[in-house]
Amino acid sequence: MTDMPIDPSRIESDNAKRNPDLEADYAALGDQLDRRGISIDAIVQAVRGFKVAVPSWGVGTGGTRFARFPGPGEPRGIMEKLDDCAVIQQLGRATPSVSLHIPWDRTDPAALKEKAQGLGLTFDAMNSNTFQDHPDDPKQPLSYKYGSLSHADKAVRTQAIEHNLEVIEFGQAIGSTAITVWIGDGSNFPGQVDLARSFERYLESAKAIYRALPEDWRLFTEHKMYEPAFYASVVQDWGTNLLIAQELGTKAFCLVDLGHHAPNVNIEQIVSRLIFAEKLGGFHFNDSKYGDDDLDAGSIDPFRLFLVFNELVEAGDALSRLHPAHMIDQSHNVTDPIESLIRSADEIRRAYAQALLVDRAALRGFQDENDPLMASECLKRAFRTDVSPILAKARSMDGGAIDPIATYRASGYRNRIAEQRPAAAGSRSGIV
Ligand code: LRH
Ligand code: MN
Ligand code: MN
């Protein structure tokens, strides 16, 4: 790796200070797990193998519909976004790949690839964007105000299909092997759109994209209950999403964004069903209180995140065949995006490590004996275990920081780039 944004000696010296405490905590947890018949080293190895992609759009400060309050040193384009992604990976060692959004990140693919290689990064799933108008894009002159892939006008549908084909071509040039399609299509009023015909038009368009997929690519469709369409979204839930993946074929899979469901929906059960149907394509991890809040993963309901991972671990071989994509999809309005993404990747790994601690034989026994209390306790015992030493050990073994946020703050990276990158203007809308 070359051109790394954080001086490696800073990570080394910070780790040297923290290592004695880590070793003591690690040994204590190791003893505890040993008594439970679990090898701590095996869990560390599994955690080290677990990676999650960061969203290029997540390193800029987000916003809401009401306002955006830019932070210092915001990346001005995709190359600077990659620098920030490299910081996250250098310190956390859980995020070696980046998921791009076109046209937000459109640039020369060869230059992009070279830049990423220099930073030790690769690219995960590509994202198309037909949920906004793109006045600067000569290839997309028609408006998506009334939809894209399901639009009543064939010319708009064709434009949206062609945009997706361009995204695939771009992705091929940078080594990606998947495209995620999320559309904002739908209606705000009963009667505005014919529910059946709009879905048929969507399917016809999605099939055109699917036909153009390269042999080794996968197509992920992402459902979302509402926003921007408040009455009826065309791809509103996992049922419709599964229907789509089944209609399209073997390279089509469903993507689950954790924030795209009604409050209280049992997302882990959706995950289980999609695994059963062999159609779980991947995740957009985030957390939410009310809707698509895009808050840091595990910041509101870490137990739910754990329960999702419990299903993934439970699925075993069935999951390895599906090898779902792990991506973060967050918007950071009040925190430093780099810190939020480091923390989120860590929380996702935490949920995974905790799920690995579940005593599955005991759980099965409690289930078969109809002992709900002990079955629930069995999960809680794993969830309550503080696996922080495992996460820190995994990071430090891979050259990352034992306390990545402390090391990031001490590095002065944000202040340094704030001097190089002029302050961005605030805006009314939160859209990137
Ligand atoms: C839609 C969504 C989708 C987009 C991203 C910016 O709410 O989750 O994944 O690509 O936000
Ligand atoms: Mn998403
Ligand atoms: Mn979303």
UniProtKB/TrEMBL annotation:
<dbReference type="GO" id="GO:0016853">
    <property type="term" value="F:isomerase activity"/>
</dbReference>
<dbReference type="GO" id="GO:0046872">
    <property type="term" value="F:metal ion binding"/>
</dbReference>
<dbReference type="InterPro" id="IPR050337">
    <property type="entry name" value="L-rhamnose_isomerase"/>
</dbReference>
<keyword id="KW-0413">Isomerase</keyword>
<dbReference type="Pfam" id="PF01261">
    <property type="entry name" value="AP_endonuc_2"/>
</dbReference>
<dbReference type="InterPro" id="IPR013451">
    <property type="entry name" value="L_rhamnose_iso"/>
</dbReference>
<feature type="domain" description="Xylose isomerase-like TIM barrel">
    <location>
        <begin position="100"/>
        <end position="294"/>
    </location>
</feature>
<protein>
    <submittedName>
        <fullName>L-rhamnose isomerase / sugar isomerase</fullName>
    </submittedName>
</protein>
<keyword id="KW-0464">Manganese</keyword>
<dbReference type="InterPro" id="IPR013022">
    <property type="entry name" value="Xyl_isomerase-like_TIM-brl"/>
</dbReference>
<keyword id="KW-0479">Metal-binding</keyword>
<dbReference type="InterPro" id="IPR036237">
    <property type="entry name" value="Xyl_isomerase-like_sf"/>
</dbReference>
